[in-house]
Design a protein that fits this description.
Length: about 260
């Protein structure tokens, strides 16, 4: 179902770390992180379906659950029986599902700016409708304009002040095809995600949550998770918004190492 594109960096005898990027990202998002971690981890960063250079052979491969199963199959093909996993936003939602469904495969879990899913069917349907409007813009607007407008959302407040922000925008435009991103959002957007809130409440595997202190929306979401789920710990990174690993890679690494 997939021809995966991924990078693998570091000594193969070291503990394994699987990195899952956010929507519009790619495995290259973790280049700086990997450079700082390669002495500690064998790092595997994947281009998720609809992103970067990964090819989806069957349209069902864009679906949320099939993507998770595909990742498990990729790990098996690499003879990785167990690893740590860190995911951001869209990749965080996949990381959470993987940790809940396949707990025997993951020994350390870190979720950055992640939602556990929407609580009601009405909320999910409303989100699907909202995502359809985004898809319409994505396939009809100038892609460069779309990408720039995306980072004007309130969850990204302050990210445009980062010295590498222009490089981030260029990377998003260079590595993605709008039609493939549309397929990803249509099949694996938040409205299509299973609601994992109740399963998180009874989960016993430690899960680290990190969120930027400027991202009010995900601060609220993750505070609820941390309050309701005994196995989670929440760390708030000051002066960051949604994309913590981009805005403060060292703080992100510190959270991972301390986890």
């Amino acid at each position: 179902m997939y021809q995966w594109h991924f990078t693998r960096t570091g000594d193969r005898t070291l503990p394994k770390l699987l990195l899952l990027h956010g929507w519009m990202g790619s495995c290259e998002d973790y280049t700086e992180i990997i450079a700082l971690l390669r002495s500690r981890f064998d790092c595997i960063a994947i281009d998720l379906p609809g992103h970067g250079k990964t090819k989806v052979i069957d349209e069902m491969g864009y679906e949320y659950v099939n993507t998770a199963i595909g990742i498990i199959q990729l790990l098996a093909s690499l003879k990785i029986a167990r690893c740590s996993i860190a995911g951001y936003s869209f990749g965080g939602r996949l990381a959470l599902y993987l940790a809940i469904e396949f707990p025997e495969r993951f020994d350390r879990v870190m979720l950055e700016s992640t939602s556990p899913g929407l609580a009601t069917e009405a909320e999910r349907q409303a989100r699907i409708t909202h995502d359809r409007q985004i898809i319409d813009r994505l396939v009809t607007d100038d892609f460069s304009k779309f990408v720039r407008s995306w980072y004007q959302h309130s969850i990204f407040i302050g990210i445009d002040k980062h010295p590498n922000f222009a490089q981030l925008i260029h990377h998003r435009i260079r590595t993605n095809q709008p039609s493939n991103l549309a397929k990803s959002l249509r099949s694996a957007g938040l409205g299509m995600q299973p609601n994992l809130r109740d399963r998180l409440k009874v989960n016993t595997q430690p899960i680290s949550l990190i969120v930027g202190g400027l991202d009010d929306k995900f601060m609220d979401i993750n505070r609820v998770i941390d309050r309701e789920c005994p196995a989670t710990t929440l760390k708030v990174i000051p002066n960051c918004s949604h994309n913590v690993h981009f805005q403060n890679s060292q703080a992100w690494i510190d959270c991972l190492i301390d986890n």
